[in-house]
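Why do we care about 3D structure at all? Because function follows from shape, and shape follows, mostly, from sequence. That is the central idea of this module. The next example makes it concrete: a single protein chain, its amino acid sequence, and then its structure expressed as tokens.
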Amino acid sequence: MYVMKYNTLLYYCYSTIADAEQFAADHLKFCKELALTGRIIVADEGLNGTVSGTAQACEAYMQAIHADERFAKTEFKIDEVDTPSFVKMHVRYKSEIVHSGLRDPNIINPQLKTGKHLEPVEFMEMKDRDDVVVLDVRSNYEHSLGKFKNAVTLDIDNFRDFPAMINELAKFKDKKILTYCTGGIKCEKASALLLHEGFTDVYQLHGGIIKYGKEAGGKDFEGKCYVFDNRLSVDVNSVNPMV
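And the structure:
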């Protein structure tokens, strides 16, 4: 018996969109033509999305995104799922693709300055050094479900609360700061803000926890990773899940 294959795609791309509001309307129509479900945020600064559908539809979507020179370097995290991870398709225009309150591109612009990207294996090899602090930039709910062993967490309910917590991190200014989040998008702005505030050695886990699970086996990640779809959370640690 033929079994339909579905994928869920997680991605973001910081790239200027000249008429983002119109792009959002057109993009919604395109996604519906592919029978995709999901949630995409469009802003002047780029795209942030999770979409789900048949493997064929997801492949067509990725090809279309990569065919647009503005988004040619977009990386997709791909999960195979039994059923689509959303019920409907939403594409919305907002002021930011991740709500941080940091809207002045002259201060924070991930396209120009952000933390150094570490691939998952590099992050794994570096995270336990004495001169390193691993910083979770996600919310209380997210890191309550799972986090890296010995990671520093912040008492924030939303990412927009992150800027107000910078002073609490001042004691780590002489350390290498390794930031991480679900897929990487929050770290782009969090690490940029840390650099703006005088931290000099700032890194980010490229592709976030999801990519780390796929390429480094999720080693030393305790618990589950919260995801922004109907699955709610996923396992990422296949190396030492009971750490």
